[in-house]
Every structure is written in structure tokens, then in C-alpha cells.
Amino acid sequence: MAKVLVSDPIDQAGIDILSQVATVDVKIGLTPEQFVQAIPEYDALMIRSGSRITKEIIEAGHQLKIIGRAGVGVDNVDVPAATRQGIVVVNSPEGNTIAAAEHAIAMMLALSRYIPDANASVKRGEWDRKTFVGAEVYKKTLGVVGLGKIGSHVATAAKAMGMKLLAYDPFISTERAEQLGCRLVEVDILLQEADYITLHIPKTPETTHLINAEALAKMKPNARIINCARGGIIDEAALAEALKAGKIAGAALDVFEEEPLKESPLRALGKEIILTPHLGASTTEAQVNVAIDVAEQIRDVLLGLPARSAVNIPGLSPDILEELRPYMQLAETLGNLVGQLAGGRVDLLNVKLQGELATNKSQPLVVAALKGLLSQALRERVNYVNASVEAKERGIRIIETRDAAIRDYAGSLHLSAKGSMGEHSVTGALLGDGEIRITNIDEFPINIPPSSHMLFTLHRDMPGIIGKLGSLLGSFNVNIASMQVGRKIVRGDAVMVLSLDDPLPDGILTEITKVAGIRDAYTVTL
Ligand SMILES: NC(=O)c1ccc[n+]([C@@H]2O[C@H](COP(=O)([O-])OP(=O)(O)OC[C@H]3O[C@@H](n4cnc5c(N)ncnc54)[C@H](O)[C@@H]3O)[C@@H](O)[C@H]2O)c1
Ligand SMILES: O=C(O)[C@H](O)COP(=O)(O)O
Question: Which of 41, 336, 409, 468 is buried deepest, with most CB atoms within 10 A?
Fold first, then answer.
């Protein structure tokens, strides 16, 4: 039975799903060294933001097939290292959207009305109504940085409270911003005009310290900033300075440069700052959502099924995958076949998506073809996750073309590869019942299903050649399952494709090329 390590607190609903297919060990608070020691025996790992999954841990995970992040952010996982090792990384992109958005709104209101400090004061036995005179958000301007899932929900809620909305997000359209009632502006305008600023962007090299001393200096003295996205987007030292100097009115932070928050000048500040311990996703509803979402994906991957929210398999959205599923095996088989025909070291793979496959949605078929191409060299080490990285590292150039006009079949794939044994091409399609057909080899038309052991010859189309080859194979005790000849003109060049019941014995290829008329012969094992 597979083994899953759960290294952060997750809802029982997730554990129950995992337990259907695996032994589940919950070990919380592992040190990096304990992680490295524990991980080799596990097939899957389920985490939240409390575990930092480094390259060292990933490399020690010899059995690891999947890392599931019960939440959105995967910045605590070395995703490139996982990709390199063929480990799929999944998350729950929407399970905690509402929880995080509501936390941001709660922070904005709590900050405006000094609720945490007022509450603490009453609990201390005081009745101070002067210190906690707040500000209304009604008719104030909210600047939303990052108008994705959480930012959009915050914008909608803020609009309902009568706020004016600005948004900064270089990756969304003006129309989308307008739909949400936001005026899309450059970041400087947002910083200068907003009374409240809320951050809903990922932490990337571009967004690290986006809110630094310079940005804080552009903000209004009454401005308040909320970060429920990621620590490090705000420069905490600069923020503490700005608050101390009264350059801005307040800040509410749920996330920190280092978590848990250690010694920090932020702790010394008063009612102008609210700090919560990364609680954005901490609602019962969100925890059930993300635990189920990610546990189901781990279960599926352990059962050999695809994951619906893999962050390191490009283009594999569930609906696209569903549509392409029958063609993935075709692409993989053709990749494997053309790779063997072209020789061990392939420099160039050209993938042509034809007929109904000639759309951008078919990109995963290119990855599947690469997986097939690399499978001879890498065996089970290559998968949909690392095929592109492995190909790049091997210097394989990939050309992807599309031709919707080719309609011999509803959809077909044409692959050509240039390698140490020259350039070869293969075309394949699916029959109505989903069966794979090889329809062309080196531009010669044929029609044959792939089989485990195959023999391809390039020969002159002339009487007697098929008989001679049959007798030769017979003399080596090789049984022919089926045979096809493809030619363009009578008595011109031709290819012969044979499906064999048995693998070809060593040395027979040389004998085959000695048959008069046969110029070349290749064996393929699929
Ligand atoms: N505090 C919490 O517990 C908690 C919970 C959930 C999510 N989060 C964090 O909230 C953030 C947003 O999550 P989401 O689900 O809305 O993500 P999302 O991907 O739906 O939205 C992110 C938005 O940021 C925009 N963006 C990217 N780079 C940008 C840049 N340089 N400048 C401006 N905009 C940029 C993108 O275009 C996108 O629209 C993430 O960092 C996530 O990890 C935190
Ligand atoms: O990225 C996320 O989903 C949030 O930061 C929540 O993290 P958590 O699930 O570890 O609380």
C-alpha cells in the first residue's frame, strides 16, 4: 500500500480520502533533517504553509510522486526541484479564496476601527472611548493590487460597502477591471490615490518588496495597507519606520517575511498595526475545501490518474485533459517510435498537430510526444512533469506546428525527429473505437496498429523481397503477426512494417540488410 506523509494540520476529511488508498502518517513539526530522514519511504506528501520543502528533501524522496499543498501558495516548495525529479506538485487554487478575501476585509475594518486594541482595552477593565475613534471606509478609495481570485472577491465586497476602487494588475484587461467596478491604473497612481491598499499578488522576484520605503513615501498620510497575500511583498523594516514616523496611518499583516514572526519592530507598534498569524485560510469551510481538493488529487495520482490542479504540468486543466485523454497515448507511442527510428540521440523533434488537434489546447500532446521520445533513455524516470525539462537539458529542439486543413482523420499527429540515425517521420491517428493506427512512416502511407515488437525496412519495391524477409525471420524462429507495405510508386522505394510476436534476436538486422533490395532496417520495441 502507498504511504502518505502529512506534515501540517489538515482537516480529517482529507485524511479520510487518503486512507482509502494509502497508509497515512501525520507528523507535524518535523525539522529539515527529520524530513530528509523520513521522506524516502513516502509516495506522497501533503502540506500547508508550515512545511518548507527544499531541494534536499525532494532529492531524498526517492519514491515521491506527488506533493499536495492544501492551499494556494506553493512558494514553500522548491517546484523546479520537484519538476526536475518528475514529482507532480498540486494545490487547491480556489478552496480558500473566500476565507482569504474575508480576512482582508475583516483586517481593513478592524484596522479602521481599532477593534483589536479596543477589545484588549475593555478586557483589561478600561472604558476608553476617545482613543479608538476610527475612520469609515464608505466613499474611501481602495487600491487592490492583484485582481485575481481573492482580489476580485475583495473588490466586489468593498464595492458593496460603497468604496471607490482602483486596481493594479498588469495581467488583466481593462474590461475585466471595469466589470468589477475598478479603475485599472499604474501602481504609482494607486499608491498616491488610495486610502486603503490591499495586496493579493503572489510573491515573485518582481513583487518582493514592491512596498518598500519609496512606495510607502508615495502613500497618503491617512493610508492604511493590508497584506493577506505573502510575507516579503512589504519591506517590514521600512513599514515599521513609516508607521512610527506617521507617514501612513496603519497596516494589517497576516503574512510575514519570516514565519513564525520572530523579533520584529512591528510588535512594538500600537493600535496602528494589526498582526495575525497567517490566518487567511483558517476557516472551517476553507480547511474542508482544501483538504478534500488536495487529498482527492493525491489519491488520483497514486491510482495512476491525472491531477486536476498540477502547478508544474503546463496546460493540463481537467476539461482539456478529458478531451485529449484518448490522444495522449497516441502522442506518446508515436514519440517513442520516432525516437527509436531516429536513433538514440535526438536533436530535433517536430510535432505537427493536424485536423481537430490543430488548436492551442493540444499543447499537452507535445509533452506526451516528448515523454514517449525520452522513454527509451529515461524509462519510468520521465513523466508529464519533467519531460520538457529533460528535453531542454538534453538540447532537444522542439518545433510545434499546426495544420487544421489535414483531415484524413478527425485529428492526427505527425512527428519527425532528427537524430544520430538520420531524420524519420511518423504519423498516427485514432480509429472510431479509440484504437491507435500508424498511418505513415517516412512519408510512405501505411495502416498498422503499433505492437510491442516491430520491424521497419526501407527497400526497393520488387518481386520476392517479402518472401525472402519472411523466410529469414522464420529461420530465426520469429513469428510475424501482421505485415504492411507502403509505397508511393510501383517498383519505387517502399517501406515494410512488420508486427512481430517475438523480439528480434541479436545480429538479425545485419542479415536483413544483406537481403537484395533492402537498404535499411530498424527494430522498435514499444
Ligand atoms: N493569507 C492567507 O492565508 C492566504 C490564503 C490564500 C491565498 N493567499 C495568497 O494570496 C495571493 C493571491 O491569491 P489568489 O488566489 O487571488 O491568486 P490569483 O493567481 O488568482 O491572483 C493573483 C493576481 O496577481 C496578479 N499579479 C501577478 N503578478 C503581479 C504583479 N507583479 N503586479 C500586480 N499583479 C500581479 C495576477 O495577474 C493575478 O490576477 C497569493 O499570494 C496567495 O498565496 C494567502
Ligand atoms: O497560500 C495559501 O493557501 C495560504 O497562505 C494559506 O496557507 P495555510 O493553508 O498554510 O494556512
Answer: 336
